[in-house]
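Support request from a user on the community tier.

User writes: "When I paste my structure tokens into the form, the page sometimes reloads and wipes my input. The last time it worked, I copied everything first. Here is what I submitted, just in case something in the input itself triggers the reload:"
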């Protein structure tokens, strides 16, 4: 399989697109027609919730496919529904691939030894069963927690190298409390810079012909100054930039995460896109029955805003 960074780079250039849409379904916030139709078939069951998530996610994917490079299903929302939820997530991964989108599994895995290897094989790798080899999830990339050190990251690097996948290691996350640990000073520098240095040192392990590495970093748009500093520390690593939209980050905040060529990152928005019709910005022009149009318009606006600042 072609290097993940090279596949993403092709989207940058061919689709002029840097948008990633997070699929974080919440049953109470789904459009009434989607939720009600599922609950009518299987009243108040996990199966009904999973069916609603699958239908909602597929329609989101179809709406954003023309202007997005990737989608990022958050596994927690699907895991909470048990096996039915996980089946729904797999349906969405397959649907996204058919729509020509890359898939980043937002699983934030973190463990060591055989357990880390199993996580990596499950999400972005493959599993041997007798003489047959399977790719259980077939995600293109996965998010990884670095708190356990290299023992928790290198198994994902190995799986990514084998299958052409990617991983995004949490460096400076977009949430307000991230500084409680990530900003602690060690040897004169914040912890997040030490993590960034490790990632930069290992960029060559997954370097593609595009000049970018499939070993990436998660750095929030809500901290633009740190984003600029981390881009200098990790010039060859892909960035996954969350925090755009509902968390307060805007296009100008994203720009420090790009290299001089205007490339190097993919920007994620979740709630501000997938629940766009609930926001007053779009509610004035879109009825709930037109919710997919609102999703498409929000994703398109995001694409245009990012492209405006990167040029």
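"...and here is what came back when it finally went through:"
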């Amino acid at each position: 399989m072609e290097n993940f960074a090279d596949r993403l780079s092709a989207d940058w250039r061919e689709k002029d697109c840097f948008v990633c849409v997070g699929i974080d379904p919440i049953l109470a916030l789904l459009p009434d027609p989607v939720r009600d139709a599922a609950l009518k078939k299987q009243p108040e069951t996990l199966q009904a919730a999973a069916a609603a998530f699958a239908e909602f996610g597929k329609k989101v994917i179809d709406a954003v496919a023309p202007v997005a490079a990737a989608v990022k299903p958050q596994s927690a929302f699907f895991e909470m529904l048990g096996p039915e939820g996980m089946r729904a997530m797999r349906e969405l991964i397959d649907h996204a691939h058919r729509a020509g989108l890359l898939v980043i599994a937002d699983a934030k895995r973190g463990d060591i030894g055989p357990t880390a290897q199993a996580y990596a094989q499950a999400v972005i790798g493959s599993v041997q069963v007798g003489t047959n080899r399977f790719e259980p999830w077939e995600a293109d990339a996965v998010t990884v927690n670095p708190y356990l050190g290299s023992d928790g990251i290198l198994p994902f690097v190995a799986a990514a190298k084998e299958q052409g996948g990617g991983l995004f290691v949490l460096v400076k996350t977009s949430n307000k409390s991230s500084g409680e640990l990530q900003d602690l000073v060690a040897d004169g520098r914040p912890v997040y810079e030490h993590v960034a240095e490790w990632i930069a040192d290992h960029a060559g392990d997954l370097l593609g012909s595009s000049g970018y590495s499939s070993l990436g970093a998660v750095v929030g748009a809500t901290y633009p100054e740190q984003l600029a500093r981390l881009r200098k520390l990790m010039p060859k690593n892909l960035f996954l930039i969350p925090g755009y939209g509902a968390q307060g980050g805007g296009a100008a905040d994203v720009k420090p995460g790009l290299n001089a060529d205007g490339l190097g990152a993919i920007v994620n928005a979740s709630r501000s896109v997938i629940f766009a019709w609930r926001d007053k910005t779009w509610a004035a022009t879109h009825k709930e029955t037109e919710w997919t149009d609102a999703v498409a318009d929000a994703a398109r606006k995001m694409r245009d805003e990012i492209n405006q600042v990167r040029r």
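Agent notes: The reload is a front-end session timeout and is unrelated to the input. The first helix runs from residue 4 to 15. The mean pLDDT is 94. Escalated to web team.
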